Amino acid sequence: MNLILLGPPGAGKGTQAVRIAERKNLLHLSSGDILREERKAKTELGLQAQDYMDRGALVPDDLILAMMMSHIEKAGAYAGFLLDGFPRTVAQAEGLDDLLKSKKTPLEHVVKIDVPRDALLDRLTGRLYCPKCGRTYHTKFSPPKEPGVCDNSGEPLIRRADDTVEVVSERLEIYERQTAPVVDHYERQGLVRTVSGVGNINQISERIIEACRE
Ligand code: AMP
Prior knowledge:
This protein has helices at 13-24, 31-40, 44-55, 61-72, 90-102, 117-125, 165-187, 201-211, and strands spanning 3-6, 27-30, 81-84, 109-114, 127-129, 136-138, 192-196. The protein is an alpha/beta fold. It has a domain at 3-115 and 176-211: P-loop containing nucleotide triphosphate hydrolases (Rossmann fold), CATH 3.40.50. The strands form two sheets. Strands 2-3-1-4-7 form a five-stranded parallel β-sheet, with helices on both faces. Strands 5-6 form a two-stranded antiparallel sheet. The model has no long low-confidence stretch (mean pLDDT 94). Adenosine monophosphate (AMP) is lined by residues 9, 31-32, 35, 52-53, 56-59, 64, 85-86, 88, 92, 162, 171.
């Protein structure tokens, strides 16, 4: 099963992607996570991407396409792939279409997670994560047992540099302008199913799995 999760920043794509990929044995590819790894390792790509990321702007399409293509190649060892955070522009979606066509690999599902804008702002600006194990928390909705410390690894939790109110507003605006047209792109291919991203995490996972059965 090859699947894309679409939705604005804060919709819960990352949280759901980890769970669904595990259940269905899919290769989970989060473009944001891959970029953050590249930055941490100070690779050429990481250095090129960092300024865009800090501003909440999109990294140029050619860089993202080359990066994602090389990762998608590895999906052969899994039951398919799950893309999270990519494609984010119509040009990226077209590049992905070409790649999949050349590999005769069908894209089967595009699931859009819907969350009202006010809730997105609340979710993103309270978000914390563990730099060691990647577990995510929220100061209000899912706080760690001890404030500021990861339940799992005991490491101090950190906030993503792009989760400030200013950068979050910019990211939401960019989503509307550049990523919402990606939904239309896949609507034209008849692939989009929309699920509500409001509710508890298990319920939302079930909605996504159900949407992939249709
Ligand atoms: P995310 O973790 O998905 O919110 O991504 C964090 C940041 O990485 C974004 O604000 C962009 O700067 C960059 N980024 C991630 N995915 C893409 C993409 N598909 N195209 C362009 N930039 C991206």
